Every structure is written in C-alpha cells, then in structure tokens.
From TrEMBL:
Key word Zinc present: no
UniProt-recorded name of the protein: Uncharacterized protein
Entry membrane topology: Multi-pass membrane protein
GO cellular component: endoplasmic reticulum membrane
Intracellular or extracellular location(s): Endoplasmic reticulum membrane
Keywords, alphabetical: Acyltransferase, Endoplasmic reticulum, Membrane, Transferase, Transmembrane, Transmembrane helix
Organism per entry: Aquatica leii
Gene Ontology terms, MF aspect: O-acyltransferase activity
Amino acid sequence: MSSSSIHYRPEKTDKKLINPKNLPVKMYEPRNSPLTDLFIENKHIKSVYNLGIAMFLGTVLSTAVTEYANEGRVYLGFRTINCAFRNFRYVFLIWPVMFLSSLAVFYGFVIWAKTRIHLKFKHLTYQFFNLNLEKVWDFLCLTFFVLYYPTVLYFAFKAVLVCHLGIASSLTVTMEATRFLMKAHAFVRTNCPKYIQKTNETLHPTLNHYFYFLFAPVLVYKESYPR
C-alpha cells in the first residue's frame, strides 16, 4: 500500500486532537476558572482573601499616617503612579494605530485567499522559466507577513522613546503590540491550511470572528467558543 493512500484518524483526548501529521488542536470546554473552583471547594481560601484585604487596608492607613506625619499631606503613592503612567494620554493615540495594523492582517489574508483561488493551476512561462503563480503569490504574501512582525515592534518601541512614556505606559504599549502580533499569528496559522490544503471548510473567517478573537482572552483562533 502506498503512503498516499494511508489516512490518519485523529486520536481524541481530553483537551486536544492529536494527529500524526498536524499540530495538536485545542478543544475548548465550558468550565469554571481554577480560582472559582478553589473558592468553592476550599473554604479556607476565603479567610486568606479576607486577610489580604485587611493587610491592604492596614498598609494604606499606615502609609497615610506616615506621610502626613513626615510631610504634612497624604500622597498614598500617587507620585509613583503618576511617574509610572507618565504621558499615558499618548497611549490612546498609539493603540489605534496598532489596532488598525491588526485589521490590515485580516484584510490582507482575505486578499491572499481570494487571489490564490484565481491563480490555482496557473503558470507563467518565459524562456527557460516556468513559474507557478500560486507559489509566487504565497511567497510574496508570506514575505509581507513576516515583515509585519518587526514593523509593529519597531513602531511600538519607537513610540515609547519618542513620547517619553513612563514604565507603566511603556508596558501598556509593548504588551499590546505583542498581543496583536500573537493574535495575528494565531489567526493566520489556523486559517491558512484551509486554503493551502484545499479542504472543504464550511466556516470561513469573517470580520466578526476576527473582532471577537482580538478581544477574547484566548490565543488560539476558533470561529466559536463555548460560553
């Protein structure tokens, strides 16, 4: 029997489908968060929670008394907070640019997928060259997508330096840039095989799916998630 006639049947486990030829696929199940289960099953955790609140209030009161005694007014750490969030207003200008760049990934993917269908089985012959237009188009789009990563990171770091952002503001920009990159990678990584392997998929990515995925607390793209 030839290797091309062998069909692998995915083996289903508790959390994922394991296929010898593909990467594992996450299986989502509705369930409580670990903290919810911990608070329900262990009553002592509530005591620790109340103790933490009491320690926090005690620390705030102690800090307020100390600052008032030494400086005649109460800051409660707001000077440190103001320093950390310096120029935070610029974050509201930087974030939309990164968000629009992530939307460009979606529309770029749509253009790639639709154009790829029209270029299927087409070749460009010139003298001794016989180019597969489908592969050339894939290579060009992959190049642009790879360049997207350093471009977003460069923009984020450049914005941090130019706007003189505080440490918390800087973390906000860089972490959001990283999140958008991870979301874009997961989206492209999940949907590309549908078109490259020419599988008959009933669900294709839409803008609503992509919007939901951008703000959902997950890093694995799915058309739907359990609620």
